[in-house]
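Still learning. Show one?

>
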Amino acid sequence: MNDSITLKVNVDRLIMQALEEDITSEDISTNAVMPEYQRGQVELICKQDGVIAGLNVFCRVFELLDDTVAFDMKVKDGNFVKSGELLAIVTGDIRALLSGERTALNYLQRMSGIATYTNSIVKLLEGSKTTLLDTRKTTPNMRIFEKYAVKVGGGSNHRYNLSDGVMLKDNHIGAAGSIAEAVKMAREYVSFVHKIEVEVENLDMVREAVEAGADIIMLDNMTPGQMKEAVQIIDGRAKTECSGNVTKENINQILDVGVDYVSSGALTHSAPIMDISLKNLHAV
């Protein structure tokens, strides 16, 4: 999401929907105090430490409201920033700066919060063979922003949506009748370029998934001891992933399990926002 084409194709429509949610007909507060054009300047200031993410989206909000807006960026996505640090100076039509402020900050605060939380878990995994993944437990209409923030924080993305890859969960297996039948049906249906992942909950299911030829086996809500045994059973015949209420507080329990991936919905559904403000607006 670092180029203008990506923004125009994937993001502009979503940003406009967010702006329309906030400005149904007009911004009556701004129009009351600023009835005519006046060029102004405002400072973007960080109010807590963390990893910044979403600056391009922040900027895009104002660009859609004012095509003359200019940005003096002091940092870039992925930088670790400190409380009190000046992140950017934005110059443009004061009416656009006022009307776009909340929408722009909502994106930036949310995305930076996710990047910061993700980075804190990535650091805990340093030295292990395990890669941190996100999930589809994202805010509706915010997935592209939240998954991008995970990557900025040092994590990796799992499948983007249901069209992206095959994941046979408990209810898919129930619908098919067995793991073996579900994998067989998936192999016959999807293109050869798609890998097939199977979610398992016990060691018998692990063995069945291996025998069925699953490419990836997700160990769901297993104990560390069960996961270790599962990795031994799989013995490199499939990639391994563990999942199930993984958070910053308990991830240390799987550090020596030996799985290839750990997926955590908490990256996107439980990360607190980063406190960032637009301050010191004045005419220029």
Observations:
- The chain has a mean pLDDT of 96.
